[in-house]
Amino acid sequence: MTTGLLEHLATGTPSLLNRLHRSLNQAMRSPAYREKLGLSRADEVTNLDRFAELPFLTKEDLRRHSPFGLCCADEQEIVRVHSTSGTTGDPVVIPYTARDVETFAALMARALSMAGMTDGDRAMVTPGYGLWTAGIGFQTGVERLGACAIPTGPIAMEMQMAFLRKMNPSYLIGTASMALLLGETIRREGLTPSLKGAILGAEQWGDGRRAVIERLLGAKTFDIYGMTETYGPGIAIECACQEGLHYWDDLFYFEVIDPATGTVLPEGETGELVITTLVKEGLPLIRYRTRDLAAILPGTCRCGSPYPRISRILGRSDDMITYRGVNLFPSSVEKLVAETPGLGSEFRIVLTTEEGKDCLDLEVERSCDGGDEPAKDLARKMKMTLSALPRVRLLPPGGLGREMKKTRRVFDNRSR
């Protein structure tokens, strides 16, 4: 697994507590961060139970101190900045030192290697460039691995198809929405690409969508995870076994907490993922609440990798919909759609107010022609499993349109 890519990080004792101390010392270079942590010295944290008592870092903290209030390196050490997308509020600027940039490229190469990519492959990199981390992150990872990057970015589908024909890539990199759109275009045009794999991230996508994409592309898919705050994508990725995402425990410390109480949960239990970076310099994260829902999986993977695993992201703690006193997650709806015969993978939830009452409409694409039985079946499952009865509207395949970036699942048009 890309031996030697992160040799520059192998300094000092390898114990987890010492690595946490190193990250705490780096964080405390910022006066604001030191005040946030409430520590005088890193060695006040004497064990993991004491570490679990430290306050959480949130995106609001990052926004409050953006752009450089929590920067933990000297100004002349900062060689790059990236920014969050701002989909949940004001964008957050993240500073990177030269070593951060090096680590980002190395961990990306490690992730791509986990998905089977080698120096003989060509990868079509379709995510956006600029302030977003994905485009440049994937490209540098591909190049660091010795493979050939085709940095198309999010260009029009006609041009994507042209590069697909000319360059014959072995890997597609992008969002699941992009892969679905590309796959449907490939099928319409009767092409047979020689893809070995598709590495897809930036949005939550379930097994139903995976099955559709793999059928259309004729290739295995690999879910990849990350965010700008943690360098970018690549901090966790599936192997060919598709039994959870391996994460790099030499670079990150993962905890899972109860979103309501903040209590650390044991392995196997689903909660909110909390991440601490172990070697990040520009803006290290100490107990950062990601709002992503997952579980740390017990045991080892069949692939034999020593790296631990998390489940696929099951949703976000702040994605919960409250409908007539019932709490719903889009991921729960997606699971029921995938389990209902006659339905495709694409759906959207539309919430409105009619005559003073909340109404839930579920628009779902068919997988084939047929009657209304899939709609009745899905409504019945929703009522029994989630205690919410929707009005299900069936649409033809492609009826919901397609996105090259993230697919929006929820449209909340209720009166406030």
Automatic annotation (TrEMBL):
Gene3D superfamilies: 3.30.300.30, N-terminal domain of ligase-like. GO terms for molecular function: nucleotide binding; phenylacetate-CoA ligase activity. Signal peptide: none annotated. GO terms for biological process: phenylacetate catabolic process. Residues 70-276 form the AMP-dependent synthetase/ligase domain. Pathway: Aromatic compound metabolism; phenylacetate degradation. Residues 397-416 are annotated as: Disordered. It comes from the Bacteria. Residues 325-414 form the AMP-dependent ligase C-terminal domain. Keywords: Ligase, Nucleotide-binding. InterPro entries: AMP-bd_C_sf, AMP-dep_Lig_C, AMP-dep_synth/lig_dom, ANL_N_sf, PA_CoA_ligase. It holds the Pfam family AMP-binding_C_2. Its EC number is 6.2.1.30. Belongs to the phenylacetyl-CoA ligase family. Monomer. This is Phenylacetate-coenzyme A ligase. It comes from Aminithiophilus ramosus.
